[in-house]
Structure formats: structure tokens, C-alpha cells
Amino acid sequence: MNRGTPSATGIRQDQPLTDASTPELLSALLRDWHGRAWVSGTGGGICGPTEDGNLFLAPTGVHKELVTPEDFFVVSPTDGTVLREPETPGLRPSECNAIFGLIARERGARSVAHSHALTAVLAADLTAGARRTTRSESGARDELPIANLEMLKGIRGLTNRDVHRVAVIDNTPREPDLVAELRRVLDDPRFTSAHAVLVRDHGAYIWGEDVWEAKRHVEVYHFLFEAMVARHDRAVVTGGSYAAPKEDSR
Q1: What b/e string do you get for 29-43 counting C-beta neighbours within 10 Å, with b at 16 or more?
Q2: Of 39, 58, 188, 220, which has the fewest Cβ atoms less than 10 A away?
């Protein structure tokens, strides 16, 4: 999208977002991502910045393509405290609340998305051969290395020559239980340049410094995950194997 081109909501990327326009854009993104099967069946979530440094947070347990600007909570990124209830009664804040706050604090992210896309689940499966260990003879098994793809340039700070490593963690019964593992991988120097974490059997968390960058990263990472799965499947069909890149990572 060109910076001056209106989005589906009429919101322009070259104009500052406000407390009125941010929930509109977040709602539009959820509708778009539902159409791509990334937030189906009430799964998934999103947050974005308020003008005073807090976060708009989508509700849980609702069909994400039906979320409206009036449905967003305002929460503190410091501890997840609900600062303002949505205008729509009877809603509950997203189960992602603690995770979004952690990513906001640790990475300076002002917008975080949670995807339940099948391609994210399958990408995490590429490391499942040694899922109960952190390392094997082939290298680290808590990461997905991605390389040799032009779309890597869509991730801030990367080039198409980089080997980009995305952390992979195990799922838990409840999303707040993921916080400890997420904190560990966010502190891991291997993943300094990553703006995503894969969760086995679940999906992915993807973020950006603002809503527009989060949108771009969500789209690019889903392409990268799909490409890695397709390359692996093609190698299996042709009787070979897709070798994980071993160059220096970013």
C-alpha cells in the first residue's frame, strides 16, 4: 500500500492515527484477516495504541469479523488493568492481554496481533522432530530459520540475504500461561530481530511499532510461514529434504 492510499476504512497511512481512527483500523484488519482464515471461529486478537500510551484491546469469545470500534477495551500495557470498558456491554477482554502487554514492554511494540492461521501451525510443526529438546544434531529446535526469500525485506531491519530466526514455543492450556516462555525467548539474543513468535499447535504472535507496521509484519510473516511449509512439502514429494539454512542469523 502506498502511504497516501486509503485503507478499506478510508484511513490514510500518511495521517496520524487517533483514538477515533485506531479502533476503526483494528476492526478493519480483523475483518480482513478473518477473510484469510487467520482469526476464524472467534480465535485470534489484536491491540493498538491509544493517544495517551495505553492499548485498545479486542474482546475475547466473539467473532472477530464482527468486532466494531465500540467493542474495544482500553488496558494498561504495564499490568493489563482495564482502564475503560467498551461501549458494548457484556464483553470480556482478550485472553491475550498479558501477552500483548509483555511484548509492548519488552519490544516497544505498540500493536500486536494473534493469529490462529493454519500456516503458522504447520510452520511450527517443521521443528516438531525434537520438540521436547532444545537442540539436536541439526541445530536448535526451538527456532524456525527462514532464508532465501525476497519477502524478508518486509520485516524491519532485514534483507533478502539474512537468515531470520523465529522462536517456537510449546502451547499451554491457557494463553496467560505462555507468558513465562515468551519472556524467555524475547530475552534470547537469537531472536533480537524477530517480530514474531510461533506457538506449536496454536498459531503466532506478531507485532510492530505501530498498527501499520504490525499489519505489514502480519502479512509478510504469513507469507514466509507458508513458503517454508510449501518448500518442505515439495521436498518430501520429490523425495528430498529441505535443509535449514546455517548462515549467520538476524
Answers
A1: bbebbbeeebbbeeb
A2: 188
DSSP string, 153-170: GGSTT--TT-BEEEEEE-
Instruction: Note the helical H segments in 46-114.
Output: 97-107
In the set 51, 85, 87, 150, the catalytic residue is 150
List, for the chain, all residue ranges whose pLDDT scores fall below the cut of 70: 1-9, 129-140, 239-250
The Cα–Cα gap between 100 and 107 comes to 10
CA 95 vs CA 91, 147, 248: distances in Å: 12, 32, 36
3-class DSSP state of 57: strand
Phi-psi region of 158 (alpha: psi -120 to 50; beta: other; left: phi over 0): beta
Distance CA 82, CA 177 (A): 19
